[in-house]
Write a structure and sequence with these properties.
single chain, mainly alpha, Helix Hairpins, 2 helices, 0% strand
Length: 83
């Protein structure tokens, strides 16, 4: 029983770290997209890297999907641990 609890706690710690990393990565990607699109105030629309912004936004979306999975796993483990 203690071994199982230790394994769950380790997994929970890993998932919490993964959650923080994903949140940081998503935040950075969103800021990148905002920066690219903010160039619309300075440059002609034809000069803005909209495809680049879209690619970064797709990466952020994929990371958000992973984040949602991690959050669900964290909730599941917390329930198993009774916290």
């Amino acid at each position: 029983m203690n071994t199982e609890l230790a394994i769950l706690r380790r997994e929970l710690a890993f998932l919490k770290m993964t959650k923080m990393e994903l949140e940081t990565a998503i935040g950075g990607k969103v800021k990148t997209v905002k920066s690219i699109l903010a160039m619309a105030n300075i440059l002609k629309i034809s000069q803005i890297d909209i495809k680049g912004a879209l690619d970064v936004l797709k990466e952020a979306d994929a990371a958000k999907d992973k984040l949602e999975e991690v959050i669900a796993k964290i909730e599941q483990i917390n329930q198993e641990l009774g916290s």
